[in-house]
């Protein structure tokens, strides 16, 4: 469905995110017929450059980051005609009058702040001062939204001085992922799961976001952040909320976000024994392995105590979840790239089968976020054959690509969907100010705790599934992590 005509101004248009995600994503939407005639994308950045030179950059970004099958020479040319550029000085007066001239009346206006958070304030101020952003304008901001509660509050206050909350779109790109939205469909459009979706029937939940990449190239940013701030406070927290929240009364931005905030507020402090932090080691060249730099080299900080891996056991203290632990883990340079949520159900209350034949491996519902998006429900059946009533666990496996054919494989990138939602004015998949603050309020004492104790992360082998201690986090509860493949 095409959206209304819009002017989208991208501040930081020559930066990495704009070139890798935002501009290629917009091209894909154009190619899919969703961008209306007359939509304008106005790049704004410090570099003095003619619009034609910027269009060349966009052409290159499309060639590099868009799948070949979607590149159509005529479409690229027509798309580039929608693109303009103005050099703008965020801290000074240069370029603002020109920008005002380019933004036309009578259409949706969105301003994407793809810049360092220190520029949010100056940009917001100038947009207002020059009368460029009207009361309907939308502001899009990226993570990191602060590095702790105090800085997040300060950012919220800066934005609130110029814009209403209904105008502010805080991006967490995990919410734009197809399967993440599917979590809500699976939970709230089926009767099957909801009656079992509580501590009485769920033994535990595992949320894994495993990556194979290291931090090379962005070590300086990452070293000040670490896995807790970079991934848990936002992406894993969002996944946890969608799994744990109560049904909202309607699929409506505030109804959904109200329920998520309640989950975050119900999160308990995490005890030091329930946290395992790791740092990937380097590899020396050998006959079987090529040399690889370790985290300390990648971060260029030989004394770094920042974690590139974290596993935590978390409790949601409310009526529904009391007693069901949520185990979260995420890390860099692990064995595989796999993001999934696994909900392990309890065993039936009484076994009618002989003990020996019924070891009751649990029912597990696995939702694969990436790659190979899909769902897998493990159920018990009788092992075929004459050998008596022997039970085996088999998967009911559904790959969205197979189930839905072409539509299932043609999944828009998270950014594409989120930008179109900004134009539509739908905030459901964006974080509200209070939500971000609640997430930091939970995260801050955990980080302060390990800093005060002077904890060092454990070293782990790149290509492994993380530090050994993380295995113990589950073993001592009589559970185990699902394998990372
Ligand atoms: C980003 C983090 O927000 O998410 C990165 O800053 C991480 O460190 C990335 O690699 C993971 O996103 P995705 O979509 O590749 O799972």
From TrEMBL:
One of its GO terms (biological process) is glucose metabolic process. It catalyses: D-glucose 6-phosphate + NADP(+) = 6-phospho-D-glucono-1,5-lactone + NADPH + H(+). Substrate binds at residues 173, 177, 211, 230, 332. The active site is at residue 235. The keyword Oxidoreductase applies. Pathway: Carbohydrate degradation; pentose phosphate pathway; D-ribulose 5-phosphate from D-glucose 6-phosphate (oxidative stage): step 1/3. It comes from the Bacteria. Keywords: Carbohydrate metabolism, Glucose metabolism, NADP, Oxidoreductase. One of its GO terms (molecular function) is NADP binding. Residues 184-482 form the Glucose-6-phosphate dehydrogenase C-terminal domain. Residues 9-182 form the Glucose-6-phosphate dehydrogenase NAD-binding domain. Its EC number is 1.1.1.49. It is an enzyme of class 1 (oxidoreductase). NADP(+) binds at residues 46, 143. SUPFAM superfamilies: Glyceraldehyde-3-phosphate dehydrogenase-like, C-terminal domain (SSF55347), NAD(P)-binding Rossmann-fold domains (SSF51735). GO terms for cellular component: cytosol. Pfam families: G6PD_C, G6PD_N. Belongs to the glucose-6-phosphate dehydrogenase family. Catalyzes the oxidation of glucose 6-phosphate to 6-phosphogluconolactone. This is Glucose-6-phosphate 1-dehydrogenase. The lineage of its organism: Bacteria, Pseudomonadati, Pseudomonadota, Alphaproteobacteria, Rhodobacterales.
